[in-house]
Amino acid sequence: MTTFAPAESERESVPTGLRRLSLSRRRRVTDAVAKVLMWLSLVIAVVPLGLVTYYVIIKGAGILSWEFLTERIPRQAQTEGGGVGPAVVGTILITGMAALISIPLGVLGAIFLNEYGKQSALARTIRTMSDVMTGVPSVVMGLFVYIAFVLLTGEQNGLAGALALACLMLPVVIRTSEEMLRLVPDELRQASLALGARKWKTTVSVVLPAAISGITSGALLAIARAAGETAPIVLVVGLTYRVNWSLFDGNTALPAQIFRNASEPFPAAVDRAWGAALTLVAIVLITTLIGRFIANRFAIKER
Amino acid sequence: MTQTTERPAVNLTQKGRGVVADRTFWIISLVSGLLVLAVLALILFTTLREAWPALSYSGTDFFTSSTWVPNDPDGDGPLGPQFGALAFIYGTVVVSLISLIFAVPISIGIALFLTELAPRRLRAAAVTVIDLLASVPSVVFGLWGIIVVGPALVKVFSWFHHVFGGVPVIGSVVGEPASSGRTFTTAGIIVAIMIVPIITSITREIFATVPESEKHAAFALGATRWEMIRGAVFPHSFGGMVGAIMLGLGRAMGETIAVSLTIGAATQIVPNIFASGNALPAVIVQNWGDPGVPPGRSALIACGVVLFAITIIINYAARIVVRRAEIRMKGAAA
Asked: Which CATH class for the B82-333 domain?
C-alpha cells in the first residue's frame, strides 16, 4: 500500500502527471464509489448475522433454564411452560448416530479417492457425484429415506432421521477428508512403504494420523450443519412428547420443534421456539468453534 | 554376518496374509466410495417409482395446472383430487430469482473486498463472519423471518406499493402487500442471506486465481483499483462467477424450512412479489402430515422429484463451469 500512497515529504517529488488528483474526476469518483460499495456489501452481510444473534439471545435467554432443557414437551401448543427435553435428547442421539454412520464411510471413501482411485475415471466420477450430492436438497434426502426406510419398516423413528442426516453428511465428509489426505506429503507414504509396510498399514498408521486433525475438524463442521437440518427430521422422525433415550418408537429434534412452534399463533409456543433456537445455535456454534480450533491448531502446513 | 545367511530367505514377492488384508482394505474403501453413486441412483429410482402414481394420475396437468386440491371435494362424486404444481414451480423460481438479485451483488462485493481491498487483519475477521453466517441453521433464519423480518417488511412493501403502484408494468409487480408479511420477497430476502456465504466463498477462490502479474500490469498502465478489477479480475473470473451463482441458485431452490415459514402458503400465480405464494420444497413439509387422499403423498414426492431434477441439473452444470474456469485460469497462471 505504501507504494501507492507516498509520505507527505515524498509527494513533492512525484511528477504532477502521476498524482492521484490528476486523474479525471469521473475515474476518481467511480473508483471511490466502487470501494464504498465493497465495504458496504460486507456491512450488509454483517447486519443480518448481528440481528439474528441479537434476537435469538434476547428472546431465547428469557425462557432458557435447566427445566426448559429437560422437561417434556406440552401436548397442546398453547400450554404455558414445559420444555424441549425430548428434542435436546433427540438432536444429540440422531446427530450422533448420523456421525457414527457417515464419518467412517466418508473417510474410507476419501481414502479410496486419494490413495487408490487418484485420477482414474471411476474416482473422478465419484468426486463429481459427491459434489453433486452436496447440492441435493435436504427435503429430497428426507423423501428418499422415507421411501427407502420408513415405508419398508413401517415406522417413523430416530434411526430414519439419522440415516437421512448421514446421507447429507457423507459427501461433505468425503470431500473435506480427501482434501486433508491430499495434504499429507508423499514422502511419508514412501518412507512407510520402504520400511516394508503394506499399503493398508501405511494408510491406517501413517497417512490417517497425519491428516486426523483436518478430518476431525471437517467432520465436526459437517455435524454442526447436520444438527440444524430440519426438513428430513420433519418428514421421517415422527413425534414424541416425552424424553426417549432410544432411536426407536418416535423421536423429535430441536429444529423440528422450532419449525412446529414458529408458525403457532400462541405466545407460549413462540417463546419455546426461541428457546429451542438459542439451544440449537449454541450446540451448532460450539461444534463449529471446536472444529475451527482443531483446524487452526493442528493443521498440516500446505506444501 | 553368517547368521543372516543361515536365516531362511524371505521371498519379498510371495503372497501371504498381508496381501489379503491389503485386498480387503481396498474393497472396503472402494465400496464406501461407490456408496455415493449408489445413494444418488437409489434416490432417483425410489422417488421416481413412488411419484409415478401421482404423475400418471395427473398427467401433464401436474406441470401445467395450478389447482392443488388434495382432498376429494365431493366424496365419491365425479370430481377427484387435483394435483397441479405449476404455482409451486412458479414460487420456487420467483423466490430464487429475488434471492439472487439480492445475494449476487453483495457476494461479489464481499469477495472483491476480501481479495482486493481488505487489510490483512480485517480479512480474517470478515472470513469468520461469513463462516458464521453459513453455520446458522436455516430454521433459525426462518423463525427470525416469520416473527421479526416479515412484519417489519410490510411497511417497506407498502411504501413501494404507494410510490410505484401507479407505474404501468412495475405497478403490478409491486402490488398490495400481504398483511402477514409472509411473501415471495420475504422468503427471497431470507434465502439471499443463506446463499451469500456460498457464492462469496466460491467467487473468492476464483478471484484468488487471477495472476498477480496481470493485476500489476493493469496498475502499471495507470488503472485505478476499480479499473484494474474491471480489466483484469472480471474477464478472468467470468466463468467461475457464473458457476458460483448457479451453485447459489441450486441452494436457493432447495431451501425448504425458511421458505416454508416465510412464504405464506398460498397456491397462486400472481406477478405481485409482495403477495403470499408457495414453493416446491415448502409444500412438501407443510402437507406431509396431511397429504390428502391417494395419490396425495405420491404427489408430494413428485414435487420432490421435480426439485431433485432441477437442482441436480443446475449443480452438475455449475460444477463443470467452475472446474473449467479453474483449469483454464490455473493454466494461465502457470
From this structure: mainly alpha
> Is the torsion defined by CA of B1, B2, B7, B11 positive or negative?
positive
- Report the run of H or E that residue A178 belongs to, with start and end: helix A158-183
Q: Is residue A2 part of a domain?
A: no
CA distances from B260 to B156, B190, B204, B287, B332 (A): 22, 11, 30, 11, 45
Which chain A residues in 110-149 lie under 8 Å from chain B, judged by CB atoms? 111-113, 115-117, 122-123, 125-126, 128-141, 143-144, 147-148
Residues A32 and A98 in one domain: no
**First-residue to last-residue Cα distance in chain A:** 28
Are the CB atoms for B89 and B269 separated by under 8 Å?
A: no
Number of structural domains chain A divides into: 2
Query: Do A103 and A236 share a domain, yes or no?
Result: yes
Per-residue pLDDT reduced to its tens digit, B11-53: 655 566 678 888 899 999 999 999 999 999 999 999 999 999 9
How far B312 CA sits from the closest chain A CA (Å)?
Answer: 6
Please state, in angstroms and rounded to a whole number, the distance separating the CA atoms of residues A109 and B174. Answer: 50
Q: How distant is the Cα of A44 from the closest Cα of chain B, in angstroms?
A: 8
Range of the domain at A93: 66-298
Q: Are residues A53 and A70 in the same domain?
A: no
ipTM score for this prediction: 0.88
Model confidence at A124, pLDDT cuts 50, 70, 90, reads very high
**Domain final residue pick, A61, A83, A99:** A61
CA pair distance B215, B224, nearest whole angstrom: 11
